[in-house]
TrEMBL record, chain A:
Name of the encoding gene: eutC
Name this protein carries in UniProt: Ethanolamine ammonia-lyase small subunit
First-tier enzyme category under EC: lyase
Superkingdom of origin organism: Bacteria
GO molecular function: cobalamin binding; ethanolamine ammonia-lyase activity
The keyword Lyase appears for this protein: yes
Species this chain originates from: Marinomonas rhizomae
TrEMBL record, chain B:
EC numbers, comma separated: 4.3.1.7
Residues where substrate binds: 201-203, 234, 329, 404
Pathway(s) of this molecule: Amine and polyamine degradation; ethanolamine degradation
Residues involved in adenosylcob(III)alamin binding: 235, 287, 337, 443
Protein name: Ethanolamine ammonia-lyase large subunit
Organism this protein belongs to: Marinomonas rhizomae
Cellular component terms (Gene Ontology): cytosol; ethanolamine ammonia-lyase complex; ethanolamine degradation polyhedral organelle
Subunit architecture: The basic unit is a heterodimer which dimerizes to form tetramers. The heterotetramers trimerize; 6 large subunits form a core ring with 6 small subunits projecting outwards.
Entries under InterPro entries matching the protein: Aldolase_TIM (IPR013785), EutB (IPR010628), EutB_dom_2_sf (IPR044939), EutB_N_sf (IPR044941)
Gene3D superfamilies, alphabetized: Aldolase class I, ethanolamine ammonia-lyase heavy chain domain like, lyase
Cofactor note: Binds between the large and small subunits.
Gene: eutB
Annotated catalysed reactions: ethanolamine = acetaldehyde + NH4(+)
UniProt KW keywords: Bacterial microcompartment, Cobalamin, Cobalt, Lyase
């Protein structure tokens, strides 16, 4: 996997290096200024790390302090804002590519056993299981149909509703171009859920495989990161060893087409091998030629 | 008025509580609401007024006496009420320290860390405090009897469980005051842990281990006078090849600028052994450690692996002023998350990890206090308490204890909480803290202390970097005034050339 071309110009908008926020005027430094700029601040072109911030005395200058506070605020909001699954579901239904799927079987609106966010954050065990009403919804659906489902797609808020709202529709659109011969279960939306809750959905729908889309723990400059987890034959009680993960799906991270390509590779392999997890290796990049000749040198010594 | 009332109430209250009560009196069971426990024998009972509180065993008593935190609630071992916690603390205060030598909290036969703790216990060192209860131990530690020298003397007689127990009945200021008296000096290419000093780990992590990105953060850190504890990278790709590449890179920088510091790649101990076998210039061996054998099993190592790694690193003989070659990281909650806590509270498990650490004479031990998330430490208050407990227990046991003062974005914590904990730890004589650009770790996605924060602690509390490193900062003209921690306004000459290579001329 070549991440060396990490797109530093695609930072989340509030990152101090993000294009819009930069050229506000590179002031010339004089010793009388309360803020001492750093001669090495241009190194921020080579990393997302907050290098060369300058200093007020020995403290962080006001503009960088406030930028940090904004980024933290966005990360907190990503964690605490409730997922609006009704709106998201409506948006999906309006998509041409999703019309057949979404209108044939109405989305399933589910909730974990964690009643609120504070409980969710302290009791990961509650977030892994569906509440009674949600279990009934799935059981009733299963009883009402004789279809065999190849795949259940489960959209879970996780730790970032922002990630779900921003990335679900474009990622699924990219994935759908690969899924012609897969019989899909109705899409599920789960509130206050953890990754493992997908296994219970899979089990109750009697689907062969489950793909969970979940909001990842937000970073300061990546509050919008989506994670994908695949389990073949998902059942309550399975551990991470039975799952394959694709992480950091977002415009500034792993882009949708790439994420969809990798996800479909794993789905296809899982269907062939009838398994997932540690025994299913991601070889989707094996064909890429790894070129180390262009690797950056350590400028501090050469 | 109110003060007077509560004071007399307290005296009255204590009169009724006091000693361990092994009576078979009828009881109101508070510890387990489940009725099947009604008739079970409690090792510890304590009657307050009409009610008797029972505690099944020493582990149960320790857990219920622990100041509140989410991880113990998640484990189902926490006190059910504030009153039960207070009673547990009173009961624990009456437990003799010697009981911890008789009753292992994790069975001796099952757990190599219990064996390490009990087999290595030094009875003559213990004799100074062997007559004390846990409560008496607190008084003794705070008293003028416990000088810095005496605290060094008793170290091998103190077990992690004794340290954990006494910490549970200490206030934050007690934890600070006693830790400050515990001096722990270690050395490799510089001297760490002298009183009045604070070191920093420069942590130049990068999400793809890109060398330019790492070098940029290293330069930033060095020019902000950070990096005397260690320059330590958490690799994004964790294998021998990558670790070797990063070890070499840091070694070249340290040699080129003649920096009196050491490097470390935080990869698995077995990887580091392979790196050494292949000739990589390894300074420090890293490992995350926990306080039960089952935790360390889940981390994929045992004590023999650590001994092998220590020998391998010592054989390279790369230290110039000392031979402490190990760097350990710990953190409350790791045992529970590995399903390996044996019914213990997370702080007791954490303290047991320090037995592992002290066996191998580490240069640095780092409790990564807020990284694990809110299911273990919910908010700034719990993170602060845990940081002070870990630092105190580590220091009392003789470890060069540092703290990753940190939080994740799903915890109820912010920069102000970190400022508070950093300040408290600085007062307590913490050995080292982290330093990263702008508090934002772009690889591990959490916030820790910044290069700027370390300078804040220096200025606010007068804490100096390691003496050898301090001299280097002067020589390189990074510091203009070491006493006042004033940085050079200009880019120091030695760095012009490298910066020009990268960005083409000064800006």
């Amino acid at each position: 996997m070549s991440q060396d071309d990490y797109p530093s110009d695609k930072s989340f908008p509030t990152h101090p290096h993000a294009p819009a926020a930069t050229e506000q005027g590179s002031k010339t430094t004089s010793k009388e200024e309360p803020v001492t700029e750093n001669a090495w601040n241009k190194l921020n072109a080579f990393t997302d790390a907050r290098v060369g911030l300058g200093r007020s005395g020995i403290s962080v200058p006001t503009k960088h302090l406030l930028a940090f506070q904004l980024a933290h605020a966005q990360a907190i909001d990503a964690v605490h804002t409730q997922l609006d699954s009704d709106t998201l579901s409506k948006t999906l239904m309006e998509q041409n590519w999703a019309k057949d799927w979404m209108t044939n079987c109405a989305p399933l609106m589910l909730h974990s056993r964690a009643t609120d966010r504070a409980t969710y954050l302290q009791r990961p065990d509650y977030g892994r299981r569906l509440d009674e009403e949600s279990a009934n919804i799935l059981d009733e659906h299963r009883a009402s149909t004789s279809q065999d489902y190849d795949l259940a797609i489960v959209v879970v808020d996780g730790l970032s509703s922002l990630a779900i709202e921003q990335n679900t529709q474009p990622f699924l659109q990219a994935l759908f171009s690969h899924l012609d011969d897969w019989n899909l279960a109705p899409i599920s939306f789960v509130k206050q859920g953890r990754v493992a809750i997908g296994d219970e959905v899979c089990e109750r729908l009697n689907a062969k495989c489950v793909l969970v889309l979940i909001g990842e723990r937000p970073g300061l400059s990546s509050p919008d990161s989506l994670g994908l987890y695949l389990t073949w034959n998902g059942k309550v009680g399975l551990t991470d060893a039975y799952r394959n993960c694709i992480s950091n799906v977002r415009p500034a991270g792993l882009v949708y087409q790439e994420a969809a390509r990798k996800a479909f590779y794993l789905l296809k392999e899982a269907r062939t091998l009838k398994l997932s997890g540690v025994k299913l290796k991601d070889r989707s990049d094996d064909d890429l030629i790894i070129d180390t000749s262009t690797e950056s040198k350590n400028f501090l010594i050469s | 008025m109110i003060l007077g009332v509560s004071k007399s109430y307290a005296l009255f209250y204590v009169g009724f509580v006091s000693q361990l009560n092994i009576s078979k009196a009828r009881e109101t069971v508070m510890s387990k609401p489940n009725s099947t426990f009604q008739f079970r024998n409690f090792q510890f009972k304590n009657t307050v007024g009409e009610r008797t509180f029972g505690f099944v065993d020493l582990a149960d008593l320790m857990a219920k006496a622990t100041p509140a935190r989410s991880g113990d609630r998640l484990a189902g071992v926490a006190a059910e009420s504030a009153e039960e916690r207070a009673i547990a603390q009173m009961t624990l205060a009456d437990v003799p320290l010697s009981l911890f030598l008789e009753q292992a909290l994790v069975p001796y036969e099952e757990d190599e860390i219990t064996r390490l703790i009990l087999d290595d216990h030094d009875k003559s060192a213990f004799s100074l405090i062997s007559h004390l209860t846990v409560g008496g131990f607190r008084d003794w530690l705070l008293s003028d009897l416990a000088t810095s020298d005496v605290l060094i003397q008793i170290r091998p007689g103190v077990t992690p469980e004794m340290a954990a127990a006494v910490s549970k009945i200490m206030r934050n200021q007690d934890l600070i005051l006693v830790a400050k008296k515990c001096h722990v000096k270690t050395a490799f290419r510089n001297t760490i842990g002298l009183p009045g000093h604070l070191s920093t780990r420069l942590q130049p992590n990068h999400p793809t281990d890109d060398l330019t990105g790492i070098a940029a953060s290293m330069l930033d850190g060095l020019l902000y006078a950070n990096g005397d504890a260690v320059i330590g990278i958490n690799p994004a790709t964790d294998n021998v090849q990558q670790a070797t590449r990063l070890i070499k890179m840091m070694d070249e920088v340290i040699q080129h600028y003649e920096i009196p510091t050491q490097s470390c790649v935080l990869t698995h101990v077995t990887n580091t052994i392979e790196c050494i076998d292949q000739g990589a210039p390894v300074d420090l061996v890293f490992q995350s450690i926990g306080g039960t054998q089952a935790t360390n099993d889940s981390f994929g190592f045992n004590l023999a692996n650590l001994a092998e790694a220590q020998d391998a690193a010592l054989s390279l003989n790369r230290g110039t002023v000392g031979n402490n070659v190990m760097y350990f990281e710990t953190g409350q909650g790791s045992a529970l998350s590995a399903n390996a806590n044996h019914g213990l509270d997370q702080q007791t498990c954490e303290a047991r990890a320090y037995a592992v650490a002290r066996k191998f004479n580490p240069l640095l031990v780092n409790t990564v206090v807020g990284f694990i998330g809110p299911e273990y430490l919910y908010d700034g208050k719990e993170i602060t308490r845990a940081g002070l407990e870990d630092h105190f227990c580590g220091k009392l046991l003789g470890l060069p204890m540092g703290c990753d003062v940190c939080y994740t974005n799903h915890a109820e914590a912010d920069q102000n909480d970190m400022d508070n904990l950093l300040t408290l730890l600085g007062v307590a004589g913490c050995t080292f803290v982290m330093g990263i650009p702008g508090s934002d770790d772009i690889m591990l996605n959490y916030q820790t202390t910044s290069f700027h924060d370390a300078l804040y602690a220096r200025r606010a509390l007068g804490l100096k970097p390691a003496p050898e490193f301090d001299l280097w900062l002067t020589k390189m003209e990074i510091f203009k005034n070491n006493e006042q921690f004033t940085l050079n306004h200009q880019l120091p000459d030695a760095f012009h050339q490298s910066l020009n290579r990268m960005i083409g001329g000064r800006s």
